[in-house]
Specification:
The chain is mostly helical and 106 residues long. Helices cover 53% and strands 0% of the residues. It is elongated.
Amino acid sequence: MTAIDLELRDELLRMASADQDARQRLDGHPRLVHGVPEQDLTTAERQTLKHLQIVDAGNTARMKTIIVTYGWPGHALVGADAPTRPGCWSSTPTETQPSSASAVTC
């Protein structure tokens, strides 16, 4: 059995936290959730949406690199408390996600 990669684990936890923070910001802007056309958004709504897009793009790019380097980061690599369930990375392309999800909650 290989040792858990604590550095990667911590990075995944930070990424998941940033993701959840960005998505929680949507709670203050219900029109974003309901698909109001972009031209009708307020400045604050546009900023919230842009922040979410930046976080998603960064996390997606990093997850692709992690997957190429290590394969899907499962419990054996990053420990049971790390966000390893594919749903934690909703913006990660489905072709890079494993076919079975673990029970870890994001």
